[in-house]
Structures are given as C-alpha cells and as structure tokens.
Design brief:
Length: 330
C-alpha cells in the first residue's frame, strides 16, 4: 500500500525507433519556478515516498541535497518536477510541456488538500507514530494512470518483480524526461502502452492477465483520468469497471491520485497481519478482522494504516515470502 521524471524523444536502442546519437548533448532549457510556504511542517521524503516504485524507479529520484525529482505525463504533456525544502519554503522547478500544470498543482501534491486534523488516534501506537511524524501529509497527484499501471503490475507478485517490470517497460518504451540530464524517464502515453509487443511484456516478466488489464485500462484512459476529480468511492467504482481491476488496485491508485484518506487496501498479503499485530497482537488477522480493527478510524482508515506501517511494529516472519517466478525465462 502507499506507505512505505525531450518531448518526442526516444531512447537509443528502442525497437523501431531511430537511435539518438551519443555525441549530441541535450540542450538545457530554463525551468519554470515556484516558491510556496506550507503553513505546517513538511517532510518531503515522507509525503512523496509513495510515488516511488523501488530504489531504481526511472520516474523518481532523490539527491544528496534533499531534493526530490519526479518525471510524469500530465494532461499537457511530459514534465519533470524538482522539489526542495529550504528553511520551511518549498522551492520548485519544472521543465517540459507539463511544467505549468505541475507547478499549479504543487500544493495539492504536497498535501494542501489533506486534512490531518480530521484524524483522531484511538490507539497508543498510532498516536505515537503520528507524534513522531508531524510532516506527514497525504499527497494528491491528480493523475490516475501513472499510479494505476504500476499497481496493476504489482498484482499477485513480489514487489521486486513488479519494480523490475515497471523499470524495464518505462525505460524501453517511455521517453527521456525533459530538463537536466538526470537519467529520468516519462512513462509511455496510452498509445505507447497499447503498442508494446506481447513478447516485451513477457521479457519484463508480466503475464498475459496483467498485460491485458493494462491494455484495457489505456483504451479507457480519458474516462479513467476523470476519476482523479471524483470522490474516492466513485473513483474506485469507475476503475473497477475495467476487468482485472479490483478493490486492491483501485485503493492503491486513489490513495495517490485522489489523496483518499479512507481508501484502505484490502486483499493485501501482509497489511491485515501487520494491522492485527500492531493493534491486537494477532498475527493471523484477515481482511474482515482488519476492517473491524480500523472501524474507529472510519473516514481515515488509510491514514491509520499508513501510520501503523510507519510505526515499524510488524509481526516476526514465520513463513517464506511469496515465491518468485520469473516468467521471462519460460
């Protein structure tokens, strides 16, 4: 669950694309800029962390100076956003056709539309976790597909396998992100996803079921993106109209796209056990029991689950992790 960056250019070596000469440097462009001072303490890494899909995510990077870089595809085109915190003020730079769109929505991305004061801790562990992280806010990207597609890739497999698939597909079929050379890539547009050959899904370790779900989703991309402006239950219901998208995937998506504070993830292999262990000392908790434990947090159940995960209180392992199956070798 959510708790835990030149338009038209193609990477050299992509099948069917003209190679990009290695000796031709990318021309730096002047970024658009924006400064914004949030009226609360802000922890950039904590707020934006749910957008990162593994340590080598080609769309997300952090740098030693504390900056967060993000490459994405906006309704106005590809864009790269750099966000840094300087003395309580957010300094943002953006490049590409989507730069203005990204800067306009910067406060929402960093939690301005979130309402943490609506949350009342009911357990000592949750209260302590919240107290230790005053900079936690729930982000809102306003973009559906960028969270939906990697969530589909994460269905029924290990996170390492899903991160590898996302990395290979974005680097191969996406495009270099606009702005400074940070080795960031923007994910493909809906047509780009639709044109990925079947053998490339297989090479990335994505089975036919998940690939078919993504292809059905991108065919309805416009309608799905509209869900970002809907109340969370309606947004989830629209996503779940696509065969292959269930409550787990829709919740994982709207947590990021809509900032949905109550979209608790059900159908997860680990979350019910973690919640049960943290709140009731029961390592065998299922979804029904987890929802009962989270009932006092109705309206804020995702935030409660996020705080429980951040507490670090997890049950000791007694069984192997999900078995890894590399279908690319078949």
């Amino acid at each position: 669950m959510a708790g835990r960056f030149e338009p038209g250019a193609r990477r050299a070596g992509v099948r069917g694309a003209a190679p990009v000469p290695a000796d031709v440097p990318r021309r730096p462009t002047a970024p658009r800029t924006r400064s914004w001072t949030p009226p609360w303490p802000l922890d950039l890494a904590l707020v934006l962390g749910p957008l990162r899909r593994g340590p080598a995510d080609p769309t997300f990077r952090t740098t030693p100076d504390g900056s967060v870089w993000r490459a994405t595809r906006t309704p106005e085109g590809p864009g790269t956003l750099r966000v840094a915190l300087r003395g309580g003020t957010v300094e943002a730079e953006a490049w590409g056709a989507g730069a203005a769109w990204l800067l306009d929505r910067l406060p929402d991305l960093l939690g301005a539309s979130d309402d943490p004061d609506a949350f009342a801790p009911r357990h000592r562990l949750v209260a302590a976790s919240r107290h230790r992280r005053p900079g936690l806010r729930l982000l809102r990207t306003g973009l559906v597909l960028e969270s939906l597609i990697p969530s589909i890739l994460e269905q029924k497999i290990t996170t390492d396998e899903a991160y590898r698939a996302w990395r290979l597909l974005v680097r191969t079929f996406g495009e270099p992100a606009p702005g400074p050379e940070m080795r960031l890539h923007v994910m493909p547009d809906p047509r780009g996803w639709a044109l990925i050959p079947s053998w490339e899904w297989h090479r990335a370790g994505v089975d036919d079921k998940r690939a078919s779900t993504i292809l059905r989703a991108v065919r309805s991309a416009r309608r799905l993106e509209e869900a970002a402006s809907m109340p969370a239950p309606e947004a989830m219901a629209r996503l779940e109209l696509i065969p292959g998208i269930g409550p787990w995937t829709s919740a994982e998506t709207v947590q990021r796209s809509n900032g949905a504070a109550d979209a608790v993830t059900v159908g997860d292999l680990h979350l019910p056990r973690i919640v049960g262990w943290a709140l009731a000392g029961d390592r065998n908790t299922d979804d029904a029991a987890m929802l009962e434990l989270l009932a006092p947090y109705e309206g804020q159940r995702h935030r409660a689950a996020r705080l429980i995960l951040l507490s670090g209180r997890i049950p000791p392992r007694r069984e192997p992790k999900m078995r890894r199956v590399d279908i690319a070798r078949w």
